[in-house]
Prior knowledge:
By secondary structure, the chain is an all-alpha fold. The chain is built from 19 helices and no strands.
Amino acid sequence: xxxxxxxxxxxxxxxxxxxxxxxxxxxxxxxxxxxxxxxxxxxxxxxxxxxxxxxxxxxxxxxxxxxxxxxxxxxxxxxxxxxxxxxxxxxxxxxxxxxxxxxxxxxxxxxxxxxxxxxxxxxxxxxxxxxxxxxxxxxxxxxxxxxxxxxxxxxxxxxxxxxxxxxxxxxxxxxxxxxxxxxxxxxxxxxxxxxxxxxxxxxxxxxxxxxxxxxxxxxxxxxxxxxxxxxxxxxxxxxxxxxxxxxxxxxxxxxxxxxxxxxxxxxxxxxxxxxxxxxxxxxxxxxxxxxxxxxxxxxxxxxxxxxxxxxxxxxxxxxxxxx
Length: 323
């Protein structure tokens, strides 16, 4: 009976969005929160199987123990080759105490230099998202990735770059792209939640080392806009969050394709019905033309507005009426 009650508590715990308040309220929930099975269930429920390992790594050493990562993987979380490639780029550690001692015992002239170095190191430690990953967890991930991918692991490779190059000739490389997604489980890293939308002031997307770069996401967005079947491939893999995470990149991408910089006359523009049809192909998959997306599209195409404004705003109206 007690085991059944314990399992019920884990079921409750995994649906708690922010468990800290619950943990502080009762010692029983603190015990539950330290259970590797409960932690694995929570991170998979909150972030999905496609993002569970990624977010577990971001939560750091206090959350991700060896038992937790084993539980997450045993529950069929997606472990992509690309994630392992990126993890290798981030994984390293400073001896904090050694650096502090060097600052403490050096003379005043060198201390100024070393204090600056210490600050630089501390900034890097905060910046690299897997820098505090424990060695047992890292070793387990290496071993598991070799079991999954064998000689095709390519730890020094870059699946994002491979995807970008293959997608330039989509028809010729369709089989290779399918292999990359289904067999190597390629999923891009998250765009930064703070900079998921195009900045109308800087003209750039922001990202950190634990997020995907702007150029890569723009290429993926345009590729999906041209070849929407990619979305179904990723959803079949288990990456169901694709429409939410890449929504703005894809919607901006399709309008950038329909209204390229080379347009010089209104007669060169597609009509509003063709624009609506192309956008509907994406909205039927789950993408949404949000108000902020419309603003970003108008901003990006602002130079061409004297030429395309009539078609563009009629297309927006048709799309809104069809929703």
